Amino acid sequence: MGTQITCDEADDERDWRLVKELLQKLGRDHVMGVAVGNELELLYQKDYATPSCIHRLWGGGQFWRKLTQRAADLDAMAGFSDVPLTSVFGAAIFAGQPFVENINATVQTLYRDAVAKFGKRWVFTLNIYPYFDPNNALDPGSSTKCTQALTTSTCFSDPRCLLPKMVTDMRTRMQSLSGSSAHLLWLGETGWSSPQASTLSGKPMAACTAFSSISSLRKYYSNFLSWDLTVDASSRGPELDGYWQDLCPGNGPQRISFEEWFGWVRRNYLPFQELTVDVPVPESYELITSAVGVALAIYVLGQFDAIASSFRGLSGTPLTLWAPPLGSVVVLLFGPGLQGRRGAISDTEAVRTVLVACVGCAFCAMLAIYSFGGDQPAITRAAAASGSLLWMRSTRSLFAPAGAFACLAVDQALPRLPPVRDWQWVAEGVQLIVVPAIVGSLFLFAAQSAAVFLRSKFAWQEALSIQDTWLVGELRSAFPSLPKRELSKLLREAEEVYYKPRSVLTDQGEVNPYIWLVISGSLVVEVSGQVASTLERKAIIGEVTFLDPKDKLATATVYANTGGARTLRWSQDRLREFCEEEAALGEKVMAAISEELIEKMVRGRGAGRRSPEESVRLLAQLRKAFPQLGMAEVPRFLKVADSVTYSEGSCLTTQGIENRFLWLVLSGSLSVNVNSQTVAQLSDGALIGEATFLGFAAESLASATVRVDEEEGVQTLRWSQDSLRSLLVEDAGLRDKLMPAFSDELLRHMRGEKLQQRRLA
Fold first, then answer.
1. In terms of C-beta density within 10 A (0-12 exposed, 13-18 middle, 19 or more buried), how is residue 146 classed?
2. Is 269 exposed, middle or buried (0-12, 13-18, 19+ CB in 10 A)?
3. Which of 206, 423, 631, 713 could form a disulfide with 590 if both were Cys (CB 3.0 to 4.6 A apart)?
């Protein structure tokens, strides 16, 4: 049990009264010891600690007086006269021999007086954090690697490891001061921070991303759990140790002036903490809970609607709450909410669909009112529901009946529509949109929050390991090809990082050690000082340097937009290791990241935004044309490519004219003509210009005319042959994989042309 010693004496006394009450409730059998003060050797570094306070506590003897007073109070409490006493200090007390003794902290004097007064009742307690050890250094010749420091800082089984080494040093100093080896030593705190603690800034280890990675935290914690407290044969280990874990990491700024992350529990963004299963729940569970939830929502909204219909709106029509929540809000968003996707409410595409559906509902309802009269609320609701289905499910089977009903309503209503000046007609429409939308939104938030909360309770009762399902949902949206069961593995390698507005993630031309996934907010991308694009939720940043380890420099400056951005961040080095360790999963992660980069590259060269299906199709065509390419090599190949569309009648090459390009056909068909005769047809996946690229054509002259035949035109990826040759000179590995593909394609074309010529002959 600990009690504070600070510069506020009144607050210290209040704290001590509460501690005494708790001690009496617990009883002596449940109290191991009482610590008076925590790391007071560092108190002078606090902003609120004035020089006069430090002098009063140490030089003026106030700390010693408080310590002896607390001991006397314990002696007066029944059963506590023998409870061990201690004060917790950190490694900074090693600044003197045997302990620090200066104007900021007279620890040596305090220890000597405590041993003399309390004897073996006094326990030495030390906090040891190898994470902050000032002797940690980067590997020789490296500005970012710290393999040696990481090894010695995270191990426990060898006397040369930092923590056992400091325990041995502490034992030696204790014996030097007291002349005895009988005193107990408690290891008060130890731990590891991930992400990087702000107090590590400016130190060598701040430059080593692996040092503060989640994998290093896991390694330290695992080794700590395996440690049996032994140091070596000639020295005793501590009699007790404790692992420091902040259960609300990131809440430091409310308590202290810096931020540290020594916990395993992530922050959540709802009014309650969500505990959900590490292994995602089965699809059947999600379907059942969604169906039950929607049914419950329909029933509850029906009850509310029955009450609302007893009231009249602005034009005398009975109020209805039914249409928009039933047709759009509930069905569209309530199901994902039950599945733990707390981000569903902020899904802009879904919200846009809801708004459009609400407009459709209101429009059809207004037409129904004037078609069938305002005294038939059932028909009004049916018309509104039809409008919702008409707008939201145009490709589903319900389109036909909904459309027919809407057309009937329009046909009946047109002759009866009042003039536009009739304000009640407008008011009715506003009423039918605003009232249900407000009620539906409130209902959605309450129902979704309750559903997620109940799921967390069920997960806890099942005694399963926990994970943040919302973040798993975000990962699933970014990596849809990954099995849900594997997503939590990828999440455990990430750290959740919030960037304030204008905070920089990458600087163009600077080394980038991370890769990010945006989970909320937006980012601005600048190239050479000019805004190039904006990245929003689901965007991946840093994939270029991740996929091409040879190129560590960021290609753009990326910073958080107004409102900031919340991200998942991985160390690139650790993520590569993870992809190697989890081979099957790693291949899918690499594929997803490659697809994102391909999408950006193609879009950035005039192709426009592609759908995920189109992006996957493009990737498949590239892999089919160049099967030797790995996922990490495809983006490097695309760096020098342009997306070019050709209209009907356009010629990519003209026989006898110099050709400086190489094409891959993405869609459409072309004819190959030699001496005005068609000798071949080319379609998706075909290569064009490989003969001049390989040097088989004299003076780079095209051997055939390749013309677009289709009215829809042809989409291609086009490479400048000079740029592609330069790339292959720089990258021998890429050259070795691409050249056989070019040669094989050329041989196929040559065989095809000879066969066609024999047929023509």
1. buried
2. exposed
3. 631
DSSP 8-class letter at 282: P
End-to-end Cα, the chain, rounded Å: 100
Q: What is the pLDDT of residues 280-335, one digit of tens each?
A: 334 444 444 444 554 555 566 666 667 777 777 655 666 665 444 344 444 444 44
Q: What is the DSSP letter of 328?
A: I
Q: Residue 475 pLDDT > 80, yes or no?
A: no
- CA–CA dist 277, 484 (Å, integer): 12
Q: What does DSSP assign to residue 661? A: E
Rounded mean pLDDT of the chain?
A: 72
- Of 52-66, 87-101, 218-232, 272-286, the range with the lowest mean pLDDT is 272-286
Place of tokens 């991370």: 514
- Do residues 632 and 545 make contact, with C-beta atoms less than 8 angstroms apart? no
Secondary structure letter of residue 18 according to DSSP: H
Tell how strand 514-527 and strand 540-541 pair up: antiparallel
> β-pairing, 34-38 with 85-90?
parallel
For 758, the token pair is 């024999």
Cβ atoms within 10 Å of 81's Cβ, excluding its own:
13
Count other C-beta atoms under 10 Å from residue 242's C-beta.
14
Distance in angstroms (rounded) separating the CA atoms of residues 321 and 308: 7
Three-state SS across 723-741?
A: HHHHHHHHCHHHHHHHHHH
Rounded Cα distance between 662 and 742, Å, is: 10
**Beta carbons of 501 and 564 less than 8 angstroms apart:** yes
Cα separation, 596 vs 601, whole angstroms? 9
- Give the predicted TM-score (pTM) of the model: 0.41
On the 0-12 / 13-18 / 19+ scale of CB atoms within 10 A, 423 is exposed
194, 479, 494, 519, 665 from 491: Cα distances, Å: 14, 12, 5, 13, 38
The number of residues making up the chain comes to: 761
Q: What is the pLDDT of residues 443-463, one digit of tens each?
A: 555 655 555 555 444 433 333
Contact 278, 211 (CB under 8 A): no
Q: Provide the pLDDT confidence category of residue 617 given band limits of 50, 70 and 90.
A: low
- pLDDT bracket for residue 633 (50, 70, 90): low
- pLDDT greater than 60 at residue 403: no
pLDDT higher than threshold 60 for residue 426: no
- CA distance readout (Å), 163 to 229, 263, 316: 11, 20, 79
Query: Is the Cβ–Cβ distance between 279 and 485 less than 8 Å?
Result: yes
Residues 677, 628 contacting (CB under 8 angstroms): no
Segment 229-265, tens digit of pLDDT: 888 766 676 765 555 544 333 333 323 333 444 444 4
Phi, psi for residue 575 in degrees, rounded to 5? -65, -35
| pLDDT, position 667 | 82
- pLDDT value for 69: 95
Rounded CA-CA distance 385/374 in Å is: 16
At 472, list the tokens.
């798993």
C-alpha–C-alpha distance, residues 91 and 546, integer Å: 38
Q: Which regions of 204-288 does DSSP assign to beta strands (E)?
A: 240-241, 276-277
CA 346 from chain centre, in angstroms, equals 16
CB contact at 8 A, 567 and 605: no
Give the start-end residues of each E strand in 160-317: 185-187, 240-241, 276-277
Range 536-546 average pLDDT = 80
Cα–Cα distance for residue pair 75/79, rounded to 1 Å: 8
If we measure between CA atoms, which residue out of 630, 673, 671 comes closest to residue 655?
673
The reported pLDDT for the residue numbered 60 is 93
CB-CB contact of 564 with 500 (8 Å): yes
